[in-house]
Amino acid sequence: MDFFCDHFDGPVELISHWHASARGKASGKQLLSGFVLGSEVSSGKFNLAKLLVECRRLANRCGVSVVMLDETQHINTGLGVSKITDILLTLAAIGPPVIFVSNYSLVHKLLGRNSEDKQRVLSEPRIMLPDLPQSQDWKDYVAECVRVSGGQIQVDIDELSAELYRFTFGIKRLAVQLLKLAYIECRSDGRVVVKLLDISRAYRSSAYSSNSSDVEELQLQAIHSRKTGSRLDLRCPFDLPASTYTNVVKFALADREDRVNAAIFDSSRTEQERAMGRLTGLIPQDISRPTKTVRRPPIKKVSAEEMESNFHALVDSIKQKAKPKNPK
Q: CA–CA separation, 21 vs 105, rounded Å?
């Protein structure tokens, strides 16, 4: 948008915000040079002080209201927390408010800094949590996944929403991956339509094993309200209100109770009733108790006389087979 004013010779381009990506950036100087010079011009002739002055001039001239930094997870690998803090404070020195998107791991590191640094970089956090299991947003997202599948997923939306949430904790990236693996499972079984059984098999597949451990850890944190643990990348560094996890805990406990009741009911049936339940789809196969392998009967103990007689009988049979035939 161009702005005309008597104080300027010609139009002035108004810019609502500046957006930068932390991917491939190792210092605040590289981020400032992207605002002033662009990504294609080298900043070797400019020092940090000159770039900061020029960024302030352009921000005031173009009306920049906010500076946004994305993909900060790429600057917390291999760099010390002091260097990361310096990058964030450099952006804050431009003048406009700075918004940066961070993962839990980086925030845990920033919380270990001095109070003056924390007050500047962690003053107003906005926590982005997964959708609640019974929320309309989560059901709409699952319905959209079913729509774009082109008829390959024919499961009730409510059942599919609950099953996906139980196996993904509401993380949409994992939901897409799990649906992809479920389709692979159904094709391997000779079918073209995904069922709930395929979702369970995909959750237990080797391709999803790295994510299943994360989902189980998140469920344990929600149920037991764990404040400590080695998985800092999965634990929210900020205190959350008790109402945040209320629906999640209710969903997890209700799901566990339903599965326990189904397992008890399945264990009380005969083999024929259990097989009929699998065919009719009343009880999922992942709940049913696995069939036990049939063991071979133990070898009968024989006495020494029986072993000797069996040995002589074996020798006689070999001699009879080895006897040459008479020539014609």
A: 18
Mean pLDDT of 224-240: 76
Burial label, 165 (beta-carbon count in 10 A; 0-12, 13-18, 19+): buried
Give the CB-side neighbour count of residue 311, counting CA atoms within 13 A. 7
**CA atoms lying within 13 Å on the CB side of residue 195:** 12
Strand partners, 3: 12
pLDDT the model gives residue 1:
65
Domains of the chain: 2-121 (3.40.50.300), 136-280 (no CATH)
Contact between 222 and 249 under an 8 Å Cβ cutoff? The reply is yes
Q: Show the tokens assigned to 8.
A: 């300027």
Q: Which residue has the tokens 């209710």?
A: 250
C-alpha 127/C-alpha 173 separation (Å) is 18
Note if the pTM is more than 0.70.
no
